[in-house]
Design goal:
binds iron/sulfur cluster, 11 strands, TIM Barrel
Length: 362
């Protein structure tokens, strides 16, 4: 076995060429990378997996991202918005099951009614749970005022995926119009961070036209941005989208899966104390994809609490698991036997040590 990867892992700082070399390491060397990432996770954020009960609030979206099944021009899905009681019931389920946190996600909507509803829901959930249930929002690009209102209402984490840090690639996977500007997304991400949210972003792995160099740049982008949370998943085609018209290239899914494992492991080695999600997209390709991501350094999962009858309407990518996976006997949906040494971080927000350090450096 080449000793290349071993010496790379021991470096204190990894530049772009180091990251590229780690992405390109051989299949024989990859387990070394994965084991190191898991050890870094255990040392810097602990051997716990934190839970975020996922509530997919609405699939009404004003945007038209070329890869997404929820895009505005997809007329083949029934649009829905959960009512207030459904959201509160899902949040209370998370609270009673001791998940510690919820994540409210939605298609992008900046209407007054939407903004007001989210603010009221966040406030009510905080009151109903005595402030004990953590609240992450993932509601796309909004005005600074809206981000502030939701923060003041009690949300404290915000996830806005950049999807790719390459401006050229961003343009190729989004319509070329004012609703889909790379710089606007970046500005939103900065605003979220400045307001005081724990800030998360992430990318898709295996997009058409994407190179390994783009992925290495994604990692340096996230490091330079000093993010607190990272969500990455393999690109999976949706047949009702412009980028999915070729159909799912099953042959390549495994490759994207393996590349995502490497991205997770490298991200953990480079940003030791952040939270990294083991995404549902990993589970779509491999039934134990999330467990494998945890073995490579991830430490967050998002069990789905959306009422089952709405699940089919929130297919951002095709084949997303639609079953209700949260139940009292297995709140994470994980097979913990496959990840020995890992326990669930129940009843806690599961904040990152990185966030505390970032705020103190200000
Ligand atoms: S990725 Fe998000 S913003 Fe883009 S179309 Fe899908 S739900 Fe809307």
């Amino acid at each position: 076995m080449s000793t290349g990867i071993a010496s790379l892992l021991d470096k204190n700082f990894h530049d772009r060429s180091d990251i590229l070399a780690m992405l390109q390491c051989s299949d024989e060397e990859a387990p070394l990378l994965y084991r190191r990432a898991a050890a870094v996770r255990d040392r810097y954020v602990g051997n716990h997996v934190y839970l975020r009960g996922l509530i997919e609030y609405s699939n009404i979206c004003g945007k038209n991202c070329l890869y997404c099944g929820v895009r505005r021009e997809n007329t083949k899905i029934d649009r829905y918005t959960l009512n207030r009681e459904e959201v509160l019931e899902a949040a209370m389920t998370a609270y009673k099951l001791n998940l510690g946190s919820i994540a409210i996600q939605s298609g992008e909507n900046s209407s007054v009614a939407f903004i007001d509803s989210i603010e009221e829901l966040v406030r009510t959930i905080r009151q109903m749970t005595d402030g004990k249930l953590g609240i992450t929002l993932s509601l796309g690009e909004q005005s600074s005022e809206t981000y502030k209102r939701w923060f003041e209402a009690g949300a404290h984490r915000y996830l806005l995926r950049i999807e790719t840090s390459s401006q050229a690639l961003y343009r190729r996977v989004h319509p070329d119009d004012d609703m889909h500007r790379y710089h606007r997304r970046l500005e939103c991400l900065k605003t979220i961070q400045e307001i005081g949210y724990q800030t998360g972003t992430g990318v898709m792995v295996g997009l058409p036209f994407q190179t390994l160099g783009d992925l290495a740049d994604d990692i340096t982008f996230m490091r330079d941005f000093d993010i607190d949370m990272c969500g990455m998943g393999p690109f999976i085609e949706h047949s009702d989208t412009p980028l999915g018209e070729r159909g799912t290239e099953n042959l390549f899914l495994k490759e994207r899966f393996n590349l995502t494992l490497r991205m997770i492991a490298i991200m953990r080695i480079i940003m030791k104390d952040i939270n990294i999600v083991a995404s549902t997209a990993m589970q779509t390709i491999d039934p134990f994809g999330r467990e494998k991501a945890i073995s490579c350094g991830a430490n967050v999962v998002m069990p789905n609490l959306t009422p089952a009858r709405y699940r089919a309407g929130y297919q951002i990518y095709e084949g997303k698991p639609g079953y209700r996976e949260v139940n009292e006997s297995n709140v994470s949906g994980l097979n913990l036997d496959l990840i020995p040494g890992i326990s669930l971080g129940l009843g806690t927000w599961g904040d990152t040590p990185h966030f505390g350090r970032r705020i103190n450096r200000r």
